[in-house]
Write a sequence for this structure.
């Protein structure tokens, strides 16, 4: 992840939404998400621990929202986390990103975001 990535100074989505996903993504079911970082929310779904009720804050989020954050489970994060995009990341706004940012007193991201280098291409 590039150091210019706006998510590294945000983290609002991790401290606003319930991050739920199919239980089959957990390690005990053959997936990659550590079981101890999840809580059962329905017969077929789990949520990242800390996001199951309001106020939400994923236990894997380290740092201060809006200042500097990182995910301590980044390589083992759920599909919900992998699929969430910052506004303008691919040229489109994301109202969910904007909503989470607003809930933490952060302004929406402005387009265009600077192109991000993939981790294997960081200079």
């Amino acid at each position: 992840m590039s150091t210019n990535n706006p998510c590294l100074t945000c983290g609002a989505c991790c401290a606003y939404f319930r991050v739920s996903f199919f239980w089959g993504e957990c390690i005990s079911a053959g997936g990659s998400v550590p079981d101890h970082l999840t809580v059962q929310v329905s017969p077929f779904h789990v949520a990242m621990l800390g996001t199951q009720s309001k106020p939400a804050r994923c236990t894997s989020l380290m740092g201060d929202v809006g200042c500097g954050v990182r995910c301590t489970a980044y390589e083992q994060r759920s599909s919900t986390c992998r699929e969430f995009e910052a506004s303008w990341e691919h040229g489109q706004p994301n109202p969910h990103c904007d909503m989470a940012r607003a809930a933490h007193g952060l302004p929406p991201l402005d387009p265009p975001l600077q192109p991000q280098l993939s981790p294997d291409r960081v200079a």
About this structure: Residues 6-110 form one domain.
